[in-house]
Amino acid sequence: MTIKVTNPADGSLAGEAPDMTLAEVKAAVDRTCNAFPMWSRKLARERGELLRRWFELIRDDKRVFAEIMVRENGKCLADAMGEIDYGLGFIEWYAEEARRVYGDTIPTHADNAQVLVMKEPAGPTAAITPWNFPFMMITRKIATALAAGCTMVIKPSELTPLTAYKLLEYARRAGIPEGVFEMVTGNPKEIGEVFTGDARIRKLSFTGSTAVGKLLATACGNDLKKMTLELGGNAPFIVFDDASFEDAVAALVSAKLRNSGQVCISPNRVFVQDGIHDRFVEAVAERVAKIRVDQGLQDAFVVGPLINRAGLDKVAALVEEAKQAGARVVLGGKPHAKGGLFYEPTILADLDDAMTVARTEIFGPVFPIYRFRTEDEVVRRANDSEYGLVAYAFTRDLGRAFRLSKNIEAGMVILNTGSVGTASVPFGGIKHSGYGREGSYYGIEEYVEVRYVLMGGLDK
Ligand code: ADP
């Protein structure tokens, strides 16, 4: 049995992936668990070398991965290549970090004793990933797990399994063995239940919707599995009168249109201060109007299709509702004349915070622009969300920049730029955006257990 993967740009068949039976999924989990003793005992240097080899093989074949991603996800080549560099960064970083999982010693509290703190791999682990970054979502989980000495079984999104299986193929070529890295695809709910119901799996890392994240967290509660949860967002993007105007416009447009807006850190509520509001809306519209909407297999940056009909319908409904409630459509505002899953890059102004569009993760190429007057007001409005993943702000006032970095409720506060992620920083959220961090040395802490050892009787 296979899962048919559809190209969102034209509805054609992009490829097929295994639709595994429950027995096949369980066998993969067994292999993941059985490989743990061997993998966790390997020298950190050896684990790092295998990751490095995997990194090199992919780096030499980036175009192969990029084209698969364009076909199964719809993002344009430029986005796909950017994602590959970002995703490769995690393999490279953790190949090196494997050797730096340092423990600690603490001055002893007892006579003739020594206190040691060791970092032990958490155990066999599992991960579930979404379709919006088919490459990077996988590399940043598995590279961290493997570096720490954990094995991992991954369930990628059934909408984008082709990139995932290509990653597995290259991992095998690099010498990363069966059991250490396993992949399963099939019925998401059933696979989720196998992962959460197996007491041998000591950790689950999930990126996806808050609804599914909560479901998995509840199930993991049964045997108190560790979790990393990267869930939804509702990112504020705040532009003050004193901002570097052109930089703010450029950063907003590129952060928003990447992946057609289907990104959890996509600016979702753009707050612009009164003094520049009208000029800012015009400048964004002028810039966005120049960007083409098209299928992604070409060199120019284009806004590609949305992932599926449900994604398009959601965006269309949010925009319609906002229009009904009095929003002004500055640009776009409807499905694109190309048909299919293309939606026009859309700018909405004169919005208020009670509209559904202000409270929902849009996941489409829509810029909702809100007006604000004071810093206190905008901080309160920015924080008025169940989510807390990322917040962006543009200001040249240093005191304000520091105040914002403290007062905004988010796992990540990004000032005077629209660029968030890279392997060396801790990515993650608070509130309903989840918990745990990916990337940097914080990321590896999610895959180790701290073990305190008291070595007593040293005088004997
Ligand atoms: P999105 O809205 O981004 O598709 P989802 O949370 O639905 O977010 O999907 C993210 C990942 O979670 C995908 O791999 C999907 O197959 C998986 N998933 C969806 N529902 C479940 C479930 N009930 N149990 C386990 N995994 C699920």
TrEMBL record:
Keywords: Oxidoreductase. This is Succinate-semialdehyde dehydrogenase/glutarate-semialdehyde dehydrogenase. Belongs to the aldehyde dehydrogenase family. GO terms for molecular function: succinate-semialdehyde dehydrogenase (NAD+) activity. It comes from Cupriavidus plantarum. One of its GO terms (biological process) is gamma-aminobutyric acid catabolic process. It comes from the Bacteria. Residues 2-453 form the Aldehyde dehydrogenase domain. It holds the Pfam family Aldedh. Gene3D superfamilies: Aldehyde Dehydrogenase, Chain A, domain 1, Aldehyde Dehydrogenase, Chain A, domain 2. The active site is at E230.
